[in-house]
Each structure stands twice: as C-alpha cells, then as structure tokens.
Structure to design on (540 residues):
C-alpha cells in the first residue's frame, strides 16, 4: 500500500481556470504530485443548474479517488459554491476556493465593504456572502455575475478595449457602493486582473483566491500529517474530457512546461 | 404500429437556438408533431472537439429514435457540420441546416462573394465552404468564427453598444472582401440580426438558415411520402438535459406559447 503522504493531491475545474490554483500549489508545496482534471467536454459549469454541477463534480471526485489521491481541491468557484458540501462526506480532506478567498478578503478590507464577481451560478448561490459574513458578520457584501468574462478570456481578449467596456458595465454598481476590496470569484478572472484593476482604479484591492487556497491546502495537509516529506520535484499530471492537445499547449504556457501533456479522460469513466 | 406519417419529427440543438428552426417548421408544416431536445447540460458545442460533438449528437439521435420519430432535423450548425454524415446512416431521413443555408446563399448572391459566420467548430470544419461550392463552384467564400456572439445572446445584450462593437470587430475582414451575402451560420445569430445588419449596412443580404431548412424538410417529407395529412394542430414537446424551467420560460416567449413546458431528460438516458 502507498503511504498516504506520498499520494498525489487531486485538483479539478470545469476547464483551464483551475491551473491558476495548480501553479500556486506547486509553488507552496513543490514536492507534491498533482493530478488535475479539466472537464472540457462539459465546460462551462457557471451557467448550469446546481444538480448538474453536483453530478459532474461527484463523477470527477470518484475518478480522483480511484487515482488514490490523499486530498481533493475543488479549483472551480462554481463547483466550490455548489458541490463542496456534498463532496466533504468523502473520507479525505476536500477543500474549495471560496472560504480561503473570503478570509483573504476580510483580512484585506478596511471598510468591510466587499464586492464579489463570479459566474451566474456562483453568485446565485450566495456562497461568498455567507463565507465572508461567517468570518465577519458586519461585513457588507455585494455580488455581481459577469457571464461574459469567461468567454472573453477564452477569446484571448485580455487587454482589449471591448473587455474594458464590458468590465466597466459590470463593475459600475459595485463602484457606487464604495467597496475597497473586490474578490475575483472565478478562476478565469485573474487573467483579466490588469484590465479590472484599470477599471476600478488603484485603491481597490483585488483578491485572487488561488494563492489563499494554496496556503490553506498547505496548512490543512500539515495538520493532517499528509505533507509529502520527499525533497524531489512533484509531478503534475493533467486529464481532460475533451481536446487534450489544445489544452496541453495552453497548460504548458501557463505552468512554464512543468506538466506532462494532458491525457484524454473519456466520459465513459464516469 | 403507428403509421409513419403520423409520427413526430425529431429536432435537436445544443440549447435554445434550434427553436428558430422549430418555429419555422411549425409555420410550414403546422400539422406535424415535433419532439425537440436541447442539450443544456453540455451546451455549448461550438468550442468542443469533432469527436465529442459526434458522440453527443449520436446519443440524442438514439433517444429520438426511441421516441419513434419519422425524421431528424439537426437544428444546430455545429452538429450539422460535424455529425450529420455519421447520423445519415440511420434508416430515417436526417437533415441539417447547412445545405439549405448554403443553397439559399447561392440563390441570393449576385457577386458570389459570400461571407459565413459561426462557431469555432463550424468554421473550422469548412462545411459551409464545401456546401456553397458544391452548389456553385466559382463562389468565393470567407468564413469567420464569432465565439462571443452566443454568450452575448445569452446575456441578452441583443442591441447593446458592446455587441455592436464586437460585431464590427468580427465582421471587418469580411466587409473588406466586398461580400454581398452573409450567412448566419449559427442558430443563435438570427437574434442579433438587427445589430449585424446595422454593422454591415443595408446592401448585404443576411441568410438565416432556419427558414430555408424548414422548406427543405417539407420538400423531403413530401417526396418520401411522410407528410402528416391530418388537419389538426401539431404538438410541440420539449426535452432538455438541464434547467427545464428557465428553458420553458424562454421557449414560451419564443414560440408564442405553442409548446408545453419542457421536461427534464436525464443524461442517464444516453
């Protein structure tokens, strides 16, 4: 039997966005092996129903369990908002991106006027509002869905004038509320960080939950005695349900060549 | 056994867009029963691989066969481009939207300089170019993917200034080619017809393949002896793989209350 410490960490997302979390995990815990699943055959999750998001998340979690992971990181805000509780009945630690992001927001905000942006499903769940107010009950939270941000990122229009106009339109109501902190509640959004910062101005802190999540995972593994004590470099293995080649190309740009080419994971495995 | 003529026509799309075809079918063939499947749990198809699009299309076609349809209309340009051939091995007529659209374009165009817009997958298949040049070998065809149009329609920004800017950006290369005809090669795009016409100017003819497809289906059923001769109003039944309630609301606006509420079709049926 493989000792628990040397088992990989499982990470999943609906597509590419969760690689922002993988990158941070690999920085904070460089010895850990990581198995990543991107559900590119059914992306996006953000416009789908809670039932469907739970179903897809459970299927991927069971695949990761078969791969003998020691913990699962739900590196997708939508799945964290809607499926985390149901996955936490598994016998290994299962962590999402929302609690770490909410904690980072509360620590950063002086006025406790906090804006959150994300997909329609994440915003509709109010998971961020609950997580922020669990940490600080008197925090004021405004949530706004930005459904065009993911397609704009996928189109590669990261710094395009149109993206700036879309951001201005979506963020106007939050700016009126005089927020001092804005949570990027979708793993795609860090790629729009410059454009968003430009629109909201330099005084508003942007919270990218990838970093906060990696640190939270590190603390959780430590206290559970699950950290890999080996000094070797961890391996990153990628599985996607569609288009492994184009995914590999983007992932390699994104992770600086640290991952092997993505393998195709047939939906028949689910 | 039910006589073939009185059986329903099966229609499917990745989501809502194919209802443009249902509406036209119901106008041209008011006595026909229609069973529509929208694959809202896996929408969109336009960014996915040919293999995945074929797999999903076959699954839906088999569901429709179990419902004893007499013919299948693939009311999705992406699935028509990539899965039609494989579905045409079934024992009933299977028709797509691309051939009728291509024929209408050739009949309309004087200069035979024809632009086509659609999803990344449809444009990548060059199915329109092939279909147009099969009808008129000397036609010049330029194809451009417009991946943000579907998300803009789903956001409801049909007449928004940002949508106009996006359209101007996508259509600029086609306008430079002096096209006189533009095929709307995605069932969502007719909803942007006014904005697109505004951008390209009044001299360019827009081809919406829904109408051409309905007429083609009518001719095909007639020549196969499959038209329903009853004088009663046909029934429209809707099935979707996710979010039946929000789908029903939109479908009822769209079809003017002619369809019953959508039923949920579990992916377990596939």
């Amino acid at each position: 039997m493989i000792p628990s410490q040397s088992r990989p960490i499982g990470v999943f997302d609906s597509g590419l966005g969760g690689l922002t979390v993988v990158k941070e995990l690999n920085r904070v815990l460089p010895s850990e092996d990581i198995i990543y699943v991107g559900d590119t055959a059914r992306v996006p999750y953000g416009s789908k129903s809670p039932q469907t998001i739970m179903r897809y998340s459970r299927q991927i979690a069971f695949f990761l369990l078969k791969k003998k992971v020691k913990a699962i990181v739900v590196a997708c805000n939508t799945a964290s908002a809607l499926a985390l509780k149901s996955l936490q009945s598994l016998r290994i630690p299962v962590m999402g991106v929302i609690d770490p992001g909410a904690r980072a927001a509360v620590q950063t905000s002086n006025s406790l006027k906090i804006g959150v942006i994300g997909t329609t499903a994440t915003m509709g769940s109010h998971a961020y509002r609950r997580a922020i107010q669990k940490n600080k009950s008197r925090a004021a939270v405004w949530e706004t869905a930005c459904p065009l941000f993911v397609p704009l990122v996928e189109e590669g229009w990261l710094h395009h004038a149109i993206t700036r106009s879309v951001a201005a339109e979506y963020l106007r109501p939050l700016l009126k509320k005089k927020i001092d902190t804005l949570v990027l509640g979708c793993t795609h959004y860090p790629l729009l960080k410059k454009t968003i910062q430009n629109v909201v101005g330099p005084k508003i802190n942007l919270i990218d939950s990838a970093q906060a999540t990696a640190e939270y995972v590190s603390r959780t593994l430590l206290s559970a005695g699950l950290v890999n004590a080996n000094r070797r470099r961890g391996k990153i293995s990628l599985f996607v349900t569609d288009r492994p080649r184009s995914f590999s190309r983007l992932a390699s740009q994104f992770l600086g060549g640290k991952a092997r080419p993505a393998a195709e994971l047939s939906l028949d495995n689910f």
Notes: Chain B has a mean pLDDT of 95. Strands of chain B lie at 9-13, 34-38, 71-74, 94-96, 113-118, 140-145, 181-184, 205-208, 236-240, 263-264.
